[in-house]
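Hey Z.,

So I finally got round to the zinc ion thing we talked about over coffee. Here's the setup:
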Amino acid sequence: MFVFLAIALQQSIADSSPFRALPMPAPTPSRSVAGAPGRGYWQQRADYTLEATLDTATNILRGRGRIYYVNRSADALDHVWVQLDQNQFAPGSISAVLNQPPLQFAGGVVFDFSGKGFVGGITVDRFAAAGRSLTTKVFGTMMRVELPRPLAPNLNITFDIAWHFPIPPYGGGRMGRVGSRFYELGQWYPRMAVYDDVHGWNTLPFLGAGEFYLEFGDFDVSLTVPAGFQVAATGALANPTAIRTPQERARLAGAFTSPGQVVQVITRQEAIASAARPVPGTRTWRFTASGVRDFAWAAGSGLRWDASTWDGILIQTFYHPDAAPWEEANTMLRFALRHFSGALGQYPWPQISAVEGLVEGMEYPMVIYCPSLQKREDQYWVLMHELGHQWFPMQVGSDERRYPWMDEGFNTFADYDAAEAFFKGTAYGDTVRRELLSAYAATAIPGSEQPMITKPDEVRQLYWTAYQKPALMLSILREAVVGRAEFDRAFREYARRWKGKHPQPADFFRTMGTLTGRDLDWFWRNWIYTTARLDQAVDSVRSSADSAFLYLSNRGQMVLPVTLELRYADGSTETRNLPVEMWDLGTRFTYRLATAKRLSSVVVDPRRIYPDVARENNSWKR
Ligand SMILES: [Zn+2]
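And the result:
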């Protein structure tokens, strides 16, 4: 007895409660305990003044310019890091060695993050400051630049840069060209890496799946292209009178005087005619943008151009004459722009341009690349999804290299609302969100599913892990845990308070927890840090004269509140919502229902919104 007691006293038991605290970094002067940017929040600033020439004879892009970089950290920086994303295609790059197979997305869409055998890479011809070349060292897609003297807090430095690279026909699904007549360009200039208060210099290489983490700043970009080309880009055109014909200017003005009307600025016939009639020489287009994290552009000849406006925002669609589904693209984009502005906060920039081309779907500030798709639902989805990225991550500048669920996932969640709204009343609109549960059944296989927190370069099922599962997670948080009004208020506030900034996961968790007044640690742990599965069950029901006792159990690792549909022998029904605290004392719970009526059946999760892995134990019948 004594020995047994002594052993029992020695045994320690770790806290395995699903409700134990989620380990989070301590709040700092930069990041408050409530999930907001703190009084001491800082981030670096990078402004770019660039000039680039598109040489269509050699398909080489040459650029030069200046980067104005402000050190707002408390640290003196003796070096900086620069992103050279084109080196994904450099000889012997990590991506070339890995040679990973394309990722499978929904609807049979394949996303190939490789250059399909293209070998290129970027050449930095100059990286200088104050007239002096700086010592640089290239590590694949990252370059370290030694500063002549440490850059003290609150001081700035201007880098003089020049570079060139061969434009790949297929650039990892994010850029590319068709011959020498159409170009979609992204990651095309040396971009400052982010120096932040959490990781210091963010130097994870660009391998393909993990996207970008960028500083915010202003852009002034001059692009010299063949005279017959149209250009769509981040920002507003700063020299329209030099570029636009009087007819184009008049038609564009029509889009502002008749809001909601789609104006054909370049018609089908005009596009076909212009493609057949090359114009000699070049033209230089100048674009300016402020408070953006990136700049991208597309250029080509023979493009149709539609325009409309909503709330003073210019909505432009550029497409090839054979891309017939794109005649509705402008209307789709306008609908989605209005929808997202209402749901997530007003679109903050003067224009949005969608360009039809070879890129499967890619987002940059104020410009998105989308293919032409035959199915109307798919066409709307990809246009609206790339538009949704104007909020996540173009405004809310999260770290895409580490946390794709914070941009792809939050965007995909918002996309289901935008799809339901556009296709309201149709079979597709009424059922589209259900595909999340079928994806769960098909993809979330124990042993192969990876937690959402996994870095994208390590994820095998990126469409599930970074897009669909976060959308399912937030749908359930909204519908079954905190309620629609409280969720919407908190989610909008997250987007507002981190606009133009760099939120970390803990900032999101704290924002949602504080603003809904809920401890949600258990929820984030289940959904983001584990692959916990849900299996709620009704085991049995016992009745007495004035009560029914419902014996419920939680047979999986995930906890969630329980919704019950109760049917009585007299034909009446009712729904009861039981709080998640029912699982505080363990995996079994007896719910006493004070009623003299005779129960005839009980159903757990009657709306079928949960990914319950064993639905056969969800109902009881007398
Ligand atoms: Zn996306």
